[in-house]
Amino acid sequence: KGHSAMFIQMNKLFTKIKSTWNKNSEMTEDKLMSLLAKVDVLIIDDFGAEFTEKDKEGVTWKQTKTNEIVDSRIGKSTLFTTNFNIGELAGMYGERDFSRMMENAEMLEMHGDNYRLRNFKKGE
């Protein structure tokens, strides 16, 4: 109680950042980045999904923004959900940023059936 929190899907986060570039936007990129830095608990869903795009320039831009967010969150509670393993994430983000993400981290692996496919029936 009394703590601020934000939950956002990784690709949606980048969409929000890009929307601040519109001259009619009420939110600036600096304000959004400041909000991400200041919130007590930040939960980023589907971390690594931004690397599924083929746009090399976009990935470079996204890596830079991810680095800024990670750097601004040092010492704060930040949760990442992902479908990637540790080796894949280290390769995506590079050793420097990955080590910052994993500093004081605890990894929880989830196993089981895909919840999204619970109503899917094969071969019918």
TrEMBL record:
Pfam families: IstB_IS21. Residues 2-120 form the IstB-like ATP-binding domain. GO terms for molecular function: ATP binding. This is IstB-like ATP-binding domain-containing protein. InterPro entries: IstB_ATP-bd, P-loop_NTPase. It comes from Bacillus cereus. It comes from the Bacteria.
